[in-house]
């Protein structure tokens, strides 16, 4: 979505924010010992998730701070990164 938004596709910034918010909420629900490698998923989905984390790192300050999640942006990013590195 970021690629399409960067090339001028309209209306994507709201979708990007919504998806990032969804990922933030899902990430906050992960337990410390859960790993992507233990989840049955296609290699394409896993590759997309890894690519997402790589692309998120330089802009992790854009991770939304939700009132119902007590983690900060760096903590959320680290949880997601650790989940994918497993």
UniProtKB/TrEMBL annotation:
It comes from the Bacteria. This is Uncharacterized protein. It comes from Streptococcus pneumoniae (strain 70585).
């Amino acid at each position: 979505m970021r690629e399409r938004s960067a090339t001028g596709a309209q209306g994507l910034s709201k979708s990007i924010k919504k998806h990032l918010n969804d990922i933030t909420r899902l990430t906050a629900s992960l337990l410390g010992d859960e790993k992507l490698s233990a989840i049955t998923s296609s290699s394409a989905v896993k590759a997309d998730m890894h690519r997402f984390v790589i692309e998120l790192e330089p802009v992790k300050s854009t991770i939304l701070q939700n009132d119902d999640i007590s983690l900060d942006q760096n903590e959320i990013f680290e949880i997601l990164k650790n989940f994918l590195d497993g």
